[in-house]
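Subject line: Sequence and fold of a protein, written as structure tokens
Area: Proteins and the way their chains fold up in space.
Start of record: The labelled sequence and token lines come straight after this line.
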Amino acid sequence: MNDRPSVLRETDEEARRLARILLRSTQHAPLAVIEPDSGFPSVSRTLVGTDIDGVPVILVSALSAHTKALLADPRASLLAGEPGKGDPLAHPRLSVQCQAEKVNHDSALHARLRGRFLARHPKSALYIDFRDFCFFRLVPLAVSLNGGFGKAYILPGEDLLIRSEANEAIAADGDIIVRELLEQHPLIVRGITERLNQKSHRNGRICGLDAAGLDLFWGENMLRYEFDSQLELYNGPNSYISKIEYSIP
């Protein structure tokens, strides 16, 4: 009989929230794939975006080794979470086992991902429309969260997803929501960053939104602000703005 205590903690909402924030605030991440010729793991770094349902998205060249690997075997893993000052192992990180889904170039989904990816990675405009570049959605299957020393959790991939009836409508109105939000609340970006205890900075912009929160750049850093509860019903831009007003006094 094994009486040794488990190193894993019982997963709670705080752990789920940290996992979602880590994934959605990631700009780039190591991506592990299975090399088709040798069967060995192969790791590369790739830019990361998110779809409206919280699924991480990558934009890759058909000439890259990891693209060829994903086409041969869609299993992949993504590591999110950047080390800060001091011991790099003391900072939270997230390992996500994913199923890669290639996105058809001429689909409505591709158009949506293109807009969201450009908002997060403007410099990708140099190559995003090349026909030999494509998007993959990396659908989370299983998640290993290390929140720091003594804070290890295992989560199902479902815990990272945004399941809301409002997803499609918010995606369609994303640009309008951001424009009207900034018109009505020109200091909203500063308000969010103060709520997140960030130091003052002159340059900030919203680069993505969904039913569960907002993504924004604050200087060179990507920040994620999660609502306490996600928006389930969407009745136009003002319903989303009202959610933000309620969440950020």
In short: The mean pLDDT is 91. The radius of gyration is 19 Å. Residues 69 and 115 are 26 Å apart (CA to CA).
